[in-house]
Amino acid sequence: MAPTTRHAPEEHTVKVHLISVFVDDQTAALRFYTEVMGFVPRNDVPMGEHRWLTVVSPEQPDGPEVVLEPAAHPAVGPWRDALADDGIPLVSFAVADVRAEHERLSALGVTFTQAPVEMGPVVTAVLDDTCGNLVQLVSVGATG
Prior knowledge:
Layout: H1 9-12, E1 18-23, H2 26-36, E2 40-47, E3 50-56, E4 65-70, H3 76-85, E5 91-94, H4 98-107, E6 112-119, E7 122-128, E8 134-140
Parallel strand pairs: 1-4, 5-8
Antiparallel strand pairs: 2-3, 3-4, 6-7, 7-8
């Protein structure tokens, strides 16, 4: 492996700006990702029959945006089905404590396909976002 070259942080930093989560129904997805998951709306712009719809973490309102992307493209359905059939999450979100979040979300009726599992210093759980995707929650550290 080649050595890593260090640069000043502002020089060549690559950051997550947008990540798409393909959803069956944008209105239902907005409700789930805000009212259940705890994200906050960032953009909601009409674009024909769909919308440019994004949510962000309330802790990072100017941070990375999750695009609630319409699952209209013909390749999306088979791809998401294959991931879900194999138990592979589409996306992973960090939380402070996976076990506490599992309890909170379960109490709200969220279905988990994987209860919290400890893997060394990492704890993960996988939930069904009701919009066609599996979502992994992850925390790192002793409290996770």
